[in-house]
Structure formats: C-alpha cells, structure tokens
C-alpha cells in the first residue's frame, strides 16, 4: 500500500496574489493499493470515477513517465473542505503525482513534481507549498515555475471557515483589469515587509503589511462576515487575509491567546467554524505498508 500525506494550503496570503502560498499543518491522506479495477472510496459519489482529480493527476504523471496507467483502489481520508480556499484541489493533484512516482519508483525530484502539478493546476501558488512546506513564493518564467521557500517564525494559524463555498472562477470575475501605479508601489512595499516579518517574527509589521490592492477589496464582497472579522483583527493587531479565493479567512499570530479570543468571538457571534494549526514545516510525503 502507498499512502500519501498532503497538507492544506492558504494561497495569496493577502499581499501575495497568485504568488505566495503557505502550507498548513492540516493533512489529507490518500491510500493506493493494487486492484483489478478502479475503485474510489472516501469521497462523494459524484467524484468516485476516472474523472477524479487524484486519478487524473496520476494519469498525467504516467504520461510524463511514459508508463501504462494501472488500476488501483484509492481511499481518500480528508476533512479539508471543498471550495473554501484551503487548497483541497491541490492536495488531490499532489497526491496523484506522488503516488504515481512511488508506484513506479521513478524518483522524480521536487521541481519535476512542481512542474507537473503546475501544468495541471495552471499556477504554482497552492501546489508549491503543498510540495515543499512552509511558505513559498513563486512566479512563472517561459511556462516554468520558479520558487523560493520562505522560512517562517513560530506562527500559529486560525482558519475561519464559513459554511458556504466560493468557486475560484467566479471569484476571479470580480477582479479589476487594471491597477493604479501608486497602488502597485504600495503592494510591492507591503509584500516585501510581509515576507521579512513572516521570517523574523515581527508580528506588528506582519499585521500592518496586510494591505492588499489586487484582490481582497473585491473578493471581500463575496464574504458577508469579512468586514467584521477584519475590523476585529485590526483592533487586535492580527495579520488576517482571505485564504485563496475564499470563503475561508486566515489569521496568524505568535500569541495563542489572541487567536483563542478571536476564535471564541467568531464561533459565538458569527457561528463560523474555526480550526487552529501551525504552519506546516514540511510538504507532502509518502509512506508504505
């Protein structure tokens, strides 16, 4: 049996639109074992077929390796919610690639894995931290992903997960087509300070640097509870952002008492599900049984 463990992720990280992602210590597990036919368990019935993203990613990797697609029993054990901005699709993509690599003992390196995952996902901002862990900044150059791992101080994360999904394609429709020059300059400055504060543990600067001009001013309208949570986070000097395209919002802090207070308020006043976790120190990995 091949077992693949893949972390949830938070993309964009406020000021890193389509370029900065963070791995979360919240894991999905995917088990693969030989079978005479394709069997998929542990997911909704409508996904238990050959169009399953895990299966399609396995197939894509077989094509990359020039191998025949085997049949297997795939069991998915994940409570990472769909369409909430926590990288559920990226966990499936990375799981399929790593399982195929393990199945054929191909020994793909992590950059090869990232290239296949980016080709499937269309961008590296979620799959990169999924593969490498920690925080990862990335960009595309001539169709190839380029990335750097960002070491993180001992921040803890609070995911605040509303009970409604947001589809990424729909969230992209609300974005502007142009940006004023002064806003672009502001974005760069805030992003550079955010990265440094994330590494050295300067929580005050981290919170102050969470000022985005590219997506949050537009996507927050899709999340009715955003403004009240954002206002409380500002009062508490907490870094907070829309995770991916939403609807999840993520706050991070070095002080667990702050996150505990925010969680209590969000759960009692807004009835929003919350979950605390550290930043994942490593990316996806494989074990065998």
UniProtKB/TrEMBL annotation:
Pfam families: GHMP_kinases_C (PF08544), GHMP_kinases_N (PF00288). ATP binds at residues 81-91. Residues 210-268 form the GHMP kinase C-terminal domain. Its EC number is 2.7.1.39. PROSITE patterns: GHMP_KINASES_ATP. It is found in: Cytoplasm. HAMAP family: Homoser_kinase (MF_00384). Belongs to the GHMP kinase family. Homoserine kinase subfamily. This is Homoserine kinase. Residues 52-134 form the GHMP kinase N-terminal domain. The lineage of its organism: Bacteria, Bacillati, Bacillota, Erysipelotrichia, Erysipelotrichales. Catalyzes the ATP-dependent phosphorylation of L-homoserine to L-homoserine phosphate.
